[in-house]
Amino acid sequence: MIRLAFALIAAATLEAGGNALLRQGLIRSWWPLLVAGIAALGLYGLLVNQSGMQFDFGRLMGCYIVAFFIVSQIIAVLIFHDLPSRRTLIGGTLILLGGLTILV
User: Fold this and answer.
1) Residue 29 confidence (pLDDT)
2) Alpha carbon distance 60, 65 (integer Å)
3) Mean pLDDT of residues grouped by 10 in the chain (104 residues)?
4) Cα gap 33→67, rounded to integer Å
5) What pLDDT shows up at residue 59?
6) Interhelix angle for 2-28 vs 31-51, to 10°?
7) DSSP character string of the chain
8) What pLDDT was estimated at residue 104?
9) Which of 22, 29, 31, 51 lies 20 to 30 Å from 3 when distance is taken between CA atoms?
């Protein structure tokens, strides 16, 4: 289970990071960032699915959403300097509770 958690965090980092790269590539009109973003998104898909083959798809994606939310918020703060709003924090709490419900 610890191994799966690390894989989901790595996959979330690839997905959120890939989207951040795409966004920067579009803003700066710089194709190397776009290519890197596309590659990261492809790797995310492979990693999340390879790591969770023992779970049904819905349960795997439900748990993944928790990792994705947390990593996305960290990237938003560190790269884009976007602090989460109160609504985002409330919604994130519901996402975390949903993930715990799926796991138990």
Assistant:
1) 92
2) 9
3) 86 93 94 96 90 83 92 93 96 95 86
4) 24
5) 87
6) 160
7) -HHHHHHHHHHHHHHHHHHHHHHHHHHHT-HHHHHHHHHHHHHHHHHHHHHTTTS-HHHHHHHHHHHHHHHHHHHHHHTT--PPPHHHHHHHHHHHHHHHHHH-
8) 81
9) 22
User: How many other C-beta atoms are found inside a 10 Å radius of the C-beta of residue 35?
Assistant: 13
Number of domains in the chain: 1
Q: How many Å apart are CA 33 and CA 23, to the nearest integer?
A: 9
8 A C-beta contact, residue 41 and residue 19: yes
